[in-house]
Design brief:
Elements lengths: L6 H12 L4 E3 L12 E6 L4 E2 L5 E11 L2 H18 L8 E15 L7 E13 L2
Parallel strand pairs: 1-2
Antiparallel strand pairs: 2-4, 3-4, 4-6, 5-6
Length: 130
């Protein structure tokens, strides 16, 4: 049976170190305008595993910033990190193998016109450290 890891916690921890100027979280709160830029990481309730060890997780990354250009720029930085730096990396709890974008970074609608949101969806193949 595959032992699943908390992908959100793992990615939030790693992204906080990688993007020190941004707030990295899984849930937004009412102070979002005071905490820009923000990167939101959410596992999508989908994906699969091989029944032994390897899991394929689907994760949404949204970036929030003051302008459209800033939100897109941060989303592109996150894209390079997920598809480049995370691939083949490991921590004390998880090994990340292949990563890839299911949807490329693009502007996503958001009801608060005082900020902008961009995001992408990724598949991340991973397994716990043995």
């Amino acid at each position: 049976m595959t032992v699943l890891v908390d992908i959100e916690l793992e990615l939030i921890t790693r992204a906080t170190a990688r993007f020190p100027a941004a707030v990295v979280r899984d849930e937004l709160d009412n102070r979002l305008l005071e905490e820009l830029p923000t990167i939101q990481i959410n596992q999508i309730p989908a994906g699969d595993d091989d029944g032994i060890r390897l899991a394929r997780m689907l994760v949404d990354f949204d970036t929030y910033h003051r302008t459209r250009a800033q939100a897109i720029s941060l989303a592109l930085e996150v894209h390079a990190w997920v598809t480049g730096e995370l691939r083949g990396s490991h921590s004390g709890t998880m090994v990340i193998g292949r990563t890839g974008a299911l949807t490329l970074p693009a502007v996503r609608p958001y009801e608060n016109t005082a900020l902008r949101r961009a995001g992408a969806t990724y598949e991340i193949f991973c397994h716990p450290v043995s």
